[in-house]
Every structure is written in C-alpha cells, then in structure tokens.
Amino acid sequence: MFRSVASLIMSISNCLDTACRWLICACALAMAAVTASQVFFRYVLNNSLFWSEELGRVLLIQLTFFGAAVALKAHAHIGLDFLVRNMSEKGRKYAALLVQILSSIFFAVMMWYGFQFAMFLKLQSTATLGISRMIPFLAVPVSGAIMLIHSVSCFFEILEFTPHHDALCETIHNGCNTADHKEQ
Predict the structure, then answer these.
(1) Which residues of the chain are modeled with pLDDT < 50?
(2) d(Cα 174, Cα 51) in Å, to the nearest integer?
(3) Direct distance between the N- and C-terminal alpha carbons of the chain, in angstroms, rounded to an integer
C-alpha cells in the first residue's frame, strides 16, 4: 500500500519536474527574445516597446519560482551538511526526514498564503499588459504545490520505499532523484 502511494507520488514528482524544466526553458527563451527585441526597437528603430519590461518581469518571476522547484528536485539548493556528515546513518536518516517535514510545512504555507494573495490580486490588472495581476503571481502557490510534492517524494525515498541499493546515502549526497543521477 505505502509502496504504491510512494511510487505514485515519485512518478508525479518526476513528471512535474520535467514540465517545470520545459517551462523554465520556454520562459528563458521568451525573456531573451523580448529583451533582444526591446534593444533592437529602442536603439535601431528608435521606437521603444512599452510592454517589454513588464513581460520580462513576469517571465523572470516564473523562472525564479519554477526554477526553485527544479533546483529542489535536483537537490541543488545551498545546504549546510557539516553536522549531518558526522552523524550515524540512523541520525542522518532522522535529520533528512526532519528537513523534509519542515520543508513540507513551509511549502504548504507558501501554497496556501500564495493562493490567498493571488485571489486578492485577481481584480487588479498590470499596467502595460492589461492582464490580471493574479496570473503572474500564481507562480507562487503553484510552485509551492510542486515543491511540496517533491518534498513528499523525497521523504518517501528517504524511508527507502524505492529499490535503490543505498537510497539514504545517495539521497543525502546526491539529492532525492537518485535514479536520474545514475543515468547521467
């Protein structure tokens, strides 16, 4: 029962990670195109695009929050592991589980209050694009939900609901997505 739930959450986490990677690539390309267009229009055609700065800002917000979700899945955020390295294997496991529990609480709060604030912004529109300010801000609760799923997936992986030969050691040193690290 728990293995099937863990497997399902890990599969969802992997699919969401792939979707986030595609989204941040698209946002980065769009942001580069918008910025290049703005430079061309301003300095070559001497006619500035009034909407480019705001669109660039919206794309940067998406890059930041969905990029944070990708970094979490890849275990690429800055960490202080000098205490954990000196613990026993059981101590490392408990410390890793505690970190995932605390992270999950933070992501749930981020998701909840981010959604509430996005709903507060739904009747306000952006200055030049004319879209609801809720749309760019939805990156906060949506990325919070994705990071919550990644954190729960990592929690299950630490509990060794996965067939990896030494899931705890690899999780602590390589991140939660150990299968992807082996393939690369």
Answers:
(1) 163-173, 178-184
(2) 42
(3) 31
Q: Would the CA dihedral through 93, 175, 10, 71 be positive or negative? A: positive
Distances (CA, A) of 36 to 55, 73, 104, 184: 13, 31, 39, 33
Which residues are CB-contacts of 104 (< 8 A; sequence separation ≥ 6)? Answer: 148, 151, 152, 155
Contact 161, 2 (CB under 8 A): yes
CA distance linking residue 140 with residue 118, whole number of Å: 8
- Residue 151 and residue 71 in contact, taking contact as beta carbons nearer than 8 Å: no
Q: Kindly tell me the burial class for residue 3, based on how many C-beta atoms sit within 10 Å of its own C-beta (0-12, 13-18, 19 or more).
A: exposed
Per-residue confidence (pLDDT) for residue 162, from 0 to 100: 54
Residues found in the chain = 184
